[in-house]
Amino acid sequence: MVRRSVIMGCGHYLPSRVLSNQELAAQVDTSDEWIVERTGIRNRHIAAEGETTSQMAIKAAQNALKQAGLEAQDIDLIIVATATPDYTFPSTATQVQAGLGITHGAAFDVQAVCSGFVYALSTADKFLISGSHQRALVIGAETFSRILDWNDRTTCVLFGDGAGAVIVEAQQGAGQLQDRGVLSTHLRADGRHVDKLYVDGGPSSTATTGHLRMEGREVFRYAVTYLAEIIEEAFTTTGLTADDVDWFVPHQANRRIIEATARKLSIDPAKVVMTVENHGNTSAASIPLALSTAVADGRIKKGQVVLMEAMGGGFTWGSALVRW
Ligand code: UT7
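# oxa(dethia)-CoA complex -> structure
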């Protein structure tokens, strides 16, 4: 028998304010046509004044707990993936812990920008299979609206706010591919690319929060290659193939990147979960948002194979194969 990290439930939260492409076109030199054609995005959600990353994370967590039929007190590990924490410190995870009324266990943040959720899920998996913890709350939550330069049309049209959460529990498995739970995770980073997607501020450099800067075309150029490689690694390690995947739930940054990656790996387009149209790129929140959407609408079912991938600033990238 081996320990497996089984997904027990998921939930998400999107702020009520929806910002459409048409509204953006009234503010910067862009158009609905350009944004849809180049990215697939139609709307993004924007946090209300005073609404923070931890508040959104708590709402997503409460929804995930409800869906899993668990209580906050059942959780002994909280990992929040975010690049937009409420404060420089303490971690957003500790704010979430307090908000949920939990006083035991461990709580910390993971910073891998858009790959944050895959990094956090992989980290939780390692804690759970080691036997040190029993039930983890893994959250991706972001308020990118606060770090965007709203005069820069090359970035401000792409991102949005939101949060998604999953609950992962250590269970006994047979050590086989038929086991429910995380089957493999693969993480990569290559810091030579730090200046292609970054925020131009921070506590030890400028003592300001800064704004997001991106060489979009360069990020795009690397994304499909790196993502296809890290998925191939997952297939090689597990012996699964594209045909075994029931649902492909990629980081939701750009419809063209998602479609090109699926094409390269011969993943049937009907198996791709695409939510980028409704909320833009929500960085670490995008995968759990898409997971939660596809579970709620009945697409993802128990026992199915779900493939996740993401790439983001650093660069960091990763993949996860899970039997739901
Ligand atoms: O989450 C992970 C990190 N982020 C990503 O995955 C994003 C990766 N990159 C991308 O998704 C794409 O590169 C973008 C969507 C950012 C841009 O699409 P693109 O097809 O690579 O366009 P481009 O940057 O090559 O720009 C094409 C043209 C340029 O005009 P010129 O130089 O051809 O005259 C831009 O100035 O489009 C112009 N442009 C815009 N036009 C209208 C750039 N942004 C806009 C805009 N509205 N918002």
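# post-check
Residues 305 and 323 are 4 Å apart (CA to CA).
The chain has two domains: 2-173, 181-323.
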